[in-house]
Design brief:
The structure is a single chain. With 334 residues, the chain is α/β, with parallel strands linked by helices. Helix content is 40%, strand content 11%. Strands 1, 2, 3, 4, 5, 6, 7 and 8 form an eight-stranded mixed beta sheet that branches. The longest helix is centred in the last third of the chain and has 28 residues, at 306-333. Mean pLDDT is 81; it is low at 1-28 and 238-253.
């Protein structure tokens, strides 16, 4: 009788007779694949994140988890908050003059720029939003000034989390959050794949803003202090003097030709450090798919070139779409 009862239940006959027998059979449903998006740092090149996100969304690829660093935190946060249209409109409205107008320079703080004007601009659309209350799970990456700890901001005001993540050392003042002075997260995790994965993503798509702009560092052995043609040096540089408004002639006229200015030195040093760290982190925890826009000709501070940058991001995402779709199909089958 025991086995008869099991057979009847399996056949849908017990407790409902023929009605249960004719009821549709529920198929086993697979868990939904959670897509994570890791948006890396790269100053003005970060406008390309907008083009990437647009292309992915139009293809039906919607991330449930976003981790952003530096400019990636700004774009990722606006997307998670449903404010990407406003950010894109602002980016496209920028001119060289307006970029300079947004920079409140001072000499008494911890950086060249206080950041108050940018904060007020962000707060126009994001003032009441908190990281933990966004429709899409989102975190920003920052670095603690005193210890070098990598800090994942998942709670608190959204604008504060953004500011902490893009506080480039020497350029922007660090931001005080929960008793910790925080600065740009690119110092420790330029492309936050680890954060997106830890927050629950099954597949992580990352956007590497320096994928084409490699410093290509090497070791120069037995170096002799020989005279080298300055033109030759310029030709071998990845981006000779391409720092946007920092390259204005009026800021360089008192220096000898080709001598780097303080802003160029600071950004060069930061770029080299970020490149080395990014290579190491990518090797230790590679993404499931990487999108690398072709941004070699885009200066780090050329924020006024948003339209070109967005277009390059869209092109890079569209090139990667067939591989992303194939990856999602294979993951769904497994």
């Amino acid at each position: 009788m025991f086995w008869d009862g099991i057979a009847r239940r399996n056949a849908g006959l017990e407790g409902g007779g023929e009605a249960q027998m004719n009821a549709p059979v529920e198929r086993e449903t697979r868990p939904k694949i959670k897509i994570g998006l890791a948006l890396g740092g790269g100053a003005a090149r970060g406008w390309s994140h907008i083009g990437v996100v647009r292309a992915l969304s139009e293809a039906g690829i919607m991330p449930e988890i976003i981790a952003g660093c530096s400019i990636g935190a700004v774009v990722g946060g606006c997307f998670a908050a449903g404010k990407l249209d406003e950010l894109e409109a602002f980016a496209l409205s920028l001119t060289k003059r307006r970029v300079m107008g947004l920079l409140d320079f001072h000499i008494t703080g911890s950086g060249l720029i206080a950041g108050g004007r940018l904060q007020r601009l962000l707060e126009e659309n994001l003032a009441d939003l908190r990281l933990e209350g966004l429709p899409i799970k989102f975190c920003t990456i920052a670095t603690e000034l005193a210890t070098g700890h990598e800090v994942w901001l998942t709670k608190g005001p959204l604008v504060q989390g953004m500011r902490a993540s893009y506080a480039l050392p020497g350029i922007f003042d660090p931001v005080l959050v929960g008793g910790r002075w925080l600065m740009d997260g690119a110092l420790v995790n330029p492309i936050p794949i680890t954060a997106a994965r830890a927050l629950g993503a099954d597949i992580v798509i990352c956007v590497n803003l320096n994928g084409e702009v490699r410093v290509r560092g090497t070791v120069i052995q037995s170096y002799e202090n020989a005279q080298t043609d300055e033109q030759e040096i310029e030709e071998h540089m990845e981006e000779p003097r391409r720092w946007g408004f920092f390259s204005a002639p009026k800021l360089q006229k008192h220096r000898r030709p080709n001598a780097p200015g303080i802003a160029s030195v600071m950004v060069d040093a930061f770029n080299i450090t970020q490149d080395r760290i990014a290579r190491s982190r990518l090797a230790g925890d590679p993404p499931d798919m990487m999108i690398a826009p072709k941004l070699a000709k885009m200066g780090l501070f050329e924020f006024h070139r948003a339209q070109e940058c967005i277009a390059l991001g869209r092109q890079a995402a569209e090139r990667a779409l067939p591989d992303i779709m194939e990856l999602l199909q294979e993951t769904a089958k497994s």
